[in-house]
Amino acid sequence: MKEIYFDHAATTPVHPEVVAAMLPYFTEVYGNPSSIHRFGRKVKTGIDKARSNIATSLHTEHSRIVFTSGGTEADNLAIIGTALANRDRGNHIITSSVEHHAVLHSCEHLERLGFEVTYLPVDQTGRVNPDDIRKAIKNSTILISIMYGNNEVGTLQPIQEIGTIARENGVYMHTDAVQAFGILPINTSELPIDMLSVSAHKINGPKGMGALYVSKDVRFAPLLYGGEQEKKRRAGTENVPAIIGFGKAIEISQVAMQERQQKYVEIREMMLSVWKQAGIDFCLNGHPTEYLPHILNVSFIGQNTETLLMNLDLEGIACSSGSACSAGSLEISHVLKAMKLEEERQRSAIRFSFGINNTMEQAVYAANKVVEIINRLR
C-alpha cells in the first residue's frame, strides 16, 4: 500500500540536512552557550549563526529575534507579554475569530485578567475586513493580532493594510506567520508590524522550536524568569540542537521557496481538476486568489469528514479536518464556523496540505482515491 502524507500544515518531516546539522550539538559541541570558556563560545557561535539566518530571512537585525519553544510560545509571549507590559496605556486587544488557538487562548487568558478583547468576524472566504479593524480601535487599544495566513483554509489576511491602520493609531501589531514562513517571502522592514511568530517544524525543522520577531519599539514583559538568555526576554538554557536545526531549515527553505510555491500550486490544481472531471460534488473553502499555496481545504458535499478521513487513512493517505492542535477531537472547525459556511460544508471539510516530498503522481493518486471512496460511500 502506498503511503502519502498530505498533512504538512500539522507538521513536516525533518530534512536530512537539518538532522545532520543538529547531530554534533548532541555529542561533540555540548557546552552551555552562557559559559565564557571555549566550549560555551563554540555553541554560542552556532546559535548566533542560526539567529542570523532567521533575521536575514525576515530582513531584520539578529538582535530582533527571540528563540522560543515553538509558535505557541511565540504567540503567548507577543500577546500576553505585550499586554502586561503596556497595561498603563490601555487594556483593549483586537484579534479575529479565525486565529490559531495559541492566539485565541492567550486572549481568553487576558480577559480573565481584566483585559477587553474584540474578536472580529471574517467573510465567507475567511478574511478580515480592515474597516472593521479601524472601527474597533479605541483609545484603550494597545495590540492588534491578526494571522498572516490561516492554518486551516489557507486564506491570507491583508496584513499590509491592517498594519498601516495600527501604525496610524499608535497600536502594536502582531501577526502569527507560522504557516506562511518559509512558504512566502516575508520582509519585516517593509511590513508595518511590530511582532511576528514563526515555527521550525512547519518548514522541515525540529518540533519544539520557534521564534518571535520583536521590533525595537515594542515594550513587553517576559513570561519566564531565571536567567538572562535572549537578552532577558526569554529565560532558560537554550535548546541548542533545535536552534541549529531551525537555522539550517531556514537556509534550505529560502533557497527553494519559489520552486516549492510553484509545485504546491500545481498539485492543488491537479487535485481540483481530477475532482471536477469526476463530477463529484465539492466546494473550495478559503479565498480564491489570496491563499497559502500548500493548503487546500475542500468540502465534499453529502459526505462526513470523519468517515472520509478514516477511509483515506485505510488507503494510506494522511490528511486532516483542520488544526492539529485539536487532535483527538473532530468537532467542527471554529474557522469554518466563523466563516459562516453552510453546516453541510462544515461537516464535510478536509484539509490537504503539501510539502517538499509530495509529487504530482501522489496528487493524482490521492485525488482519485477520494473519488473512489465517495462513489463507494454513496
Portion of residues in beta strands equals 5-15%
Count of DSSP H/I helices: 14
- One letter per element, helices H and strands E, the order comes to EHHHEHEHEHEHEEEHHHEEHEHHEH
Q: Which architecture of the largest domain does the CATH hierarchy give at level 2? A: 3-Layer(aba) Sandwich
Report on the biggest sheet: 7 strands, mixed
Question: Into which percent range does the helicity of residues fall?
Answer: 40-55%
Number of domains: 2
Mean pLDDT value:
96
Form type: globular
CATH superfamily of the largest domain: Type I PLP-dependent aspartate aminotransferase-like (Major domain)
CA radius of gyration is: 21 Å
User: End-to-end span in angstroms?
Assistant: 24 Å
CATH class of the largest domain: Alpha Beta
Count of DSSP strands: 12
Question: Secondary-structure map with pairings?
Answer:
Layout: E1 4-5, H1 16-22, H2 24-27, H3 38-58, E2 65-68, H4 71-85, E3 92-96, H5 101-112, E4 116-120, H6 130-136, E5 141-145, H7 159-168, E6 172-176, E7 195-199, E8 210-214, H8 229-232, H9 240-255, H10 257-278, E9 282-285, E10 295-300, H11 305-314, E11 317-318, H12 334-338, H13 343-346, E12 349-353, H14 360-377
Helix pairs in contact: 1-9, 3-9, 4-5, 10-14
Keywords: Iron, Iron-sulfur, Metal-binding, Pyridoxal phosphate, Transferase
Organism: Ammoniphilus resinae
Cofactor: pyridoxal 5'-phosphate
